[in-house]
Design a protein that fits this description.
By secondary structure, the protein is α/β, with parallel strands linked by helices. The protein has one domain (2-238): P-loop containing nucleotide triphosphate hydrolases (Rossmann fold), CATH 3.40.50. It is built from nine helices and eight strands. Strand 1 and strand 2 form a beta hairpin. Helix 2 crosses helix 3 (62-75) and helix 7 (163-170) crosses helix 8. It is globular and about 50 Å long. Mean pLDDT is 83; it is low at 1-15 and 90-99.
Amino acid sequence: VHLFLQESGVDASLENAGDVPESVIKTRRGLIRPRGPNQAQYVHRVLTHDINFAVGPAGTGKTYLAVACAVDALERDQIRRILLVRPAVEAGERLGFLPGDLAQKIDPYLRPMYDALFEMMGQQKVAKCIERNIIEIAPLAYMRGRTLNDAFIILDEAQNTTIDQMKMFVTRIGFGSKAVITGDITQVDLPRDKTSGLRHALKILSGIDGVGVTQFHKGDIVRHPLVKKIVHAYEEDESK
């Protein structure tokens, strides 16, 4: 993974991570401070770039900090809405066999983002924002044909997009909008004959002005200390 990101030009952009001033994210529930230089660099990039990629293992704060930045932007009236998007690979992106309306169908796949929203805004406020379409939940397939202005769009689990899906997503970005694309290129659930859209995008978009890329490592994991050890154990086993 590290070699792939080096070849994509990602590591060069991390050289001055320690020089980035700390960015504090303000939400109604309090202040959120990045933990460590990599998270600080990530938040700084989100604030200064229109499109950002955050790549690395679970527990590094990729999705949590993206949601925090989105909530902060919404409460400052810098955007008009937040969109939460995830490729529902398990349901073949069709979701037809699941009961309920669209929000209920996609809900299980967006639970990590819901949890972050509830923590930062409160469940009642989130429910009201969803009802008024200020917060929109949609499977990736429902993004086709749309141009999104004044929005903060978060694409989670992006390693499970195809090349065509990723191209479709990044070209939806309109004026006054930001997009944060998170994923772990070691956890691709696509069929073996499909190339990950995240992997492909990192290869061809990393050098474009306005596109930020942050690589997280297992050393950046901020969950329970045991999670870091578990991730390391699996990595060692997979490398045998």
